[in-house]
Design goal:
Layout lengths: L2 E13 L8 E4 L3 E4 L5 E13 L5 E4 L3 E4 L4 E9 L10 E2 L3 E9 L1 H5 L8 H11 L7 E2 L7 E2 L6 E5 L14 E5 L14
Parallel strand pairs: 1-4, 2-5, 3-6, 4-7, 6-8, 7-9
Antiparallel strand pairs: 10-11, 12-13
Length: 192
């Protein structure tokens, strides 16, 4: 048996309080603590964590997981906001962790709707398109983090924009729909 967390996100605000008699709080956007004898796979996930420790509680905190004590934790294609939490680590490790494509990103890179291969939405959707399983694709709206769903089409560009075609030749036109993940609408064009 194994535990899976795939193709999802977590946006968490953690506020400390003196209301409960807890000496130490375990804080992470995905989980405060992972402690199991079974393998755990976290794949194609992003997180944004904000920590407000106004009462100076003892925290064991990481951008992804507070503390990891499992026998086998695998992280693949996992991203976190490296600016919002004020933390410098993704987790405190006491078990076995394997990382592949685990990266802290700035807020601007995480929210970028551009077609740059380095931004979050393209990394998440590349994993989805390469997966043998069927997963929802990610989309992004103005100034926001990626989410599931179809965004409104903001622009459609037919490429190439200008091209001479001579009698007997054919030309394949492509369309670029922005933002990435917007619903694929029919493109009608005329020529002369």
């Amino acid at each position: 048996s194994s535990d899976l967390i795939k193709n999802c996100y977590a946006e968490v605000i953690y506020n400390t309080t003196n209301k409960y008699l807890i000496n130490t709080s375990y804080v992470g956007a995905i989980s405060g603590i992972i402690q199991t004898k079974y393998p755990v796979l976290i794949e194609n996930v992003y997180s944004v964590l904000k920590v407000n420790n106004s009462v100076d509680k003892k925290l064991i905190a990481g951008n992804l997981v507070g503390i990891e004590k499992s026998q086998d934790l695998k992280l693949n294609n996992v991203y976190y906001n490296s600016q919002t939490s004020g933390l410098t680590i993704d987790m405190k490790e006491e078990g076995k962790v394997t990382r592949n494509n685990v990266e802290g990103m700035t807020t601007d890179v995480m929210k970028s709707p551009s077609s740059s291969a380095d931004n979050l939405i393209n990394k998440l959707n590349t994993w989805v398109s390469n997966s043998v399983e069927k997963f929802n694709t990610w989309t992004i709206q103005k100034e926001g983090y990626p989410y599931f769903g179809l965004p409104d089409v903001e622009s459609i560009k037919v490429l190439p924009v200008v091209k001479e075609v001579y009698p007997g030749e054919t030309l394949q036109l492509e369309k670029e729909i922005l933002p990435f993940g917007a619903s694929d609408v029919a493109v009608k064009y005329t020529s002369n």
